[in-house]
Amino acid sequence: MSDYPYITDPTIQAYCHQYSKSLAPALSALAKETEATGQLKMISGPFLGQFLRMFAMVIQPERILEIGTFVGYGTRCLMQGLTDTGKIYTLEKSDDYDTYSRQAFASSARPQSIIQLKGDAAELIPTIDEVWDLVFIDAAKRQYSTYFELVLPSLRKGGVILADNVLWKGKVVSPDNDKLCQGLDLFNQKVFEDERVDNVLLPIDDGVNFIVKR
Ligand SMILES: C[S@@+](CC[C@H](N)C(=O)[O-])C[C@H]1O[C@@H](n2cnc3c(N)ncnc32)[C@H](O)[C@@H]1O
Questions:
Q1: Which of 158, 187, 191, 208 has its CA 20 to 30 A from that of 166?
Q2: Is 165 in contact with 138 (CB distance < 8 Å)?
Q3: CATH number of the domain bearing residue 173
Q4: Number of structural domains, the chain?
C-alpha cells in the first residue's frame, strides 16, 4: 500500500488499462529495452503513450516540442500524429540518453521528422525559431514554470501544452511533500491563475495538466 493517496482507485486504473488499446509492438520492444537502463519509470509507458499518440493524431500538429527525451518513447508516440511535413523537436540534457535515443530514432519510421537537441532545455528553448502546435513538458520537475514561460510566447493561439507528472503519485496533496513536489504544486497554481490559458488537470497516469493558449 502506498504512503500517498492513489490518483485513481487501483481497480478502476486496472480496468482502464484493460480496456484501452495497446501501442504498436515496436514501442513495447522499446519499453522492454528501457528496462536495461534501470529507469523504466521515466518513460511515459503504454497508457500515457497511447493518450499522447491519439491526442496528436486528432490535432495533427505541424510542430511539436518535447521537453525531456529520455529514450524517445514519448517522441515516437507523439510523432504518429505529425502531418507529412511535420517535425518534432525533442530536448535532452543527458549524454547517455541523448545517444541512446539517437540510435532508437535512426530505426524509427520517420527519422527525418525528428530534430533532437542536446543540452539544458531552458537554454535550448529560446534558440529555436518555431511556432508550436503542441508542447509536451516532461523534464526537470522544478523547472516546469520556467518551461511554461519560455514556450508560451511561441505557442500558437489554440496550441496545447501537456505537462506530465503534475500529481506526482498523489504527493502534491501531501503535507510532507518535498521540493520537487512543491515545484509541481506551484506550477499547477500558476497555470490555474494565468489569464493567458485555459486548463484542465487530468488524473491520467501520473497527472497531466492539459493547457490551451487563449
Ligand atoms: C521523464 S523523462 C522523459 C520521458 C519521455 N518524455 C517519454 O515520454 O518517454 C525526463 C528526461 O528529461 C531529462 N532532463 C531532466 N532535466 C533536463 C533539463 N534541464 N534539460 C533537458 N532535459 C532534462 C532527463 O535526463 C530525462 O531523460
A1: 158
A2: yes
A3: 3.40.50.150
A4: 1
Query: Looking at ligand 1, which residue's alpha carbon is closest to its atom 9?
Result: 43
- Judge whether 196 lies within some domain: yes
| Residues across the chain | 214
Sequence-ordered strand ranges (E) for the chain: 63-67, 87-92, 114-118, 132-137, 155-164, 197-202, 208-213
Task: Read off the amino acid at residue 173.
Answer: V
The answer to whether residues 72 and 105 touch, using CB atoms and an 8 Å cutoff, is: yes
Residue 202 belongs to what domain range?
10-213
Q: Nearest Cα to 117, choosing from 141, 142, 87?
A: 87
pLDDT tens by residue, 5-57: 668 888 998 899 899 987 777 677 777 777 666 666 677 778 899 999 999 99
**Residue in 42, 91, 127, 208 to alter for ligand 1 test, most ligand atoms within 8 A of Cβ:** 42
47 is a domain residue: yes
